[in-house]
Amino acid sequence: MQTTTTGPPGAEARQDATVAARAVDVWKVYGSGEAQVAALRGVSVDLGRGRFTAIMGPSGSGKSTLMHCLAGLDTVTRGEVHIGDVLVTGLGDAKLTRLRRDQVGFIFQQFNLLPSLTAQENILLPLSIAGRKPDRDWFAQVIEIVGLGDRLSHRPSQLSGGQQQRVACARALVARPNVIFADEPTGNLDSRSGAEVLGFLRRSVRDYGQTIVMVTHDPNAASYADRVVFLADGEVRAELHAPTADAVLDTMGRLDTGPVGAGRTVGA
Ligand SMILES: Nc1ncnc2c1ncn2[C@@H]1O[C@H](COP(=O)(O)OP(=O)(O)OP(=O)(O)O)[C@@H](O)[C@H]1O
Tag placement on the chain: N or C end, fewer CB within 10 Å? Predict the structure, then answer.
């Protein structure tokens, strides 16, 4: 595992202003011998601060692996991951836990709310674990953004799937993390609830400068993003800016029939 920094002196300072998270030539190899799978093959990507980036690609292309590596949930085999100005690669467990707690927010397909806590308690839980006091004005604003004002005392079982995901969005937003990673956030929602959640995410980026990275299979969901990065066979093969759902669909179609950009790297 390499822990060297890349680029000339001063490059870190320049990248900090515009880059919330970065992968540099990241390889992730699972298993060994004949069972070896290279899930990521030299992925380099900068995730812009205050931007909404979607990661797409066919099943098995490495989307979840990339997100887990970027979020410090998994280690890389080779290469580097940075979150803000922190080199994540090589950090020990305690520092990684603190980094995730202080700098990263998560939104999962399955909501991952604690059933015994109310919506408000779920939303405030990460802050209370971190020993941080919520900013009252920001909390009120987040509740307004996600439209949960009359549901704060409800438990998850008393909320619809869409409402539960709004609680999860509020939980991620309220800590103002450096970056929010959303893994198929609309995968369990009907199209209307999904559109609402995507609307909140987009608004939090546009109006409040939040950085969001979202893995999705859905071209319509990806069209809410500022940028879409396409993976195939563990490599970045294409990207779109200001994407439409049709353009995303078209690019996905071309990925399925072969490389859209750089060729496949052989060997791990
Ligand atoms: N823990 C693991 N052990 C071995 N192989 C793994 C492991 N996790 C993922 N892989 C393999 O790595 C490759 C990429 O998997 P990954 O889950 O990142 O893809 P994905 O694009 O997120 O797929 P999907 O869209 O189906 O969720 C796949 O070939 C997968 O089988």
Answer: N
Q: Give the helix ranges, DSSP H, for 81-160.
A: 93-103, 119-129, 136-146
Residue nearest to atom 7 of ligand 1 (CA): 30
Q: How far apart are CA 225 and CA 97, in angstroms?
A: 28
- 44 CB within 6 A, ligand 1: no
Evaluate if residue 158 carries a pLDDT over 90. yes
pTM of the model as a whole: 0.88
Q: Which domains does the chain have, with CATH numbers?
A: 56-62+92-256 (3.40.50.300)
Could you tell me if the CB of 72 is within 6 A of ligand 1?
A: no
For 24, half-sphere exposure in the C-beta direction (CA atoms, 13 angstrom radius) is 18
| 20 CA to centre of ligand 1 in angstroms | 24
ipTM value of the model?
Answer: 0.97
Locate the ligand 1 atom nearest the alpha carbon of residue 184 and give its number.
Answer: 27
For ligand 1, atom 26, which residue shows the shortest CA distance? 59
How far is Cα 56 from Cα 48, in angstroms, rounded to an integer?
Answer: 17
- Please tell me the total number of residues recorded for the chain in this structure: 268
Nearest residue to 78 via CA among 90, 92, 64: 90
pLDDT of residue 134: 87
Q: What is the largest CA-CA distance in the chain?
A: 56
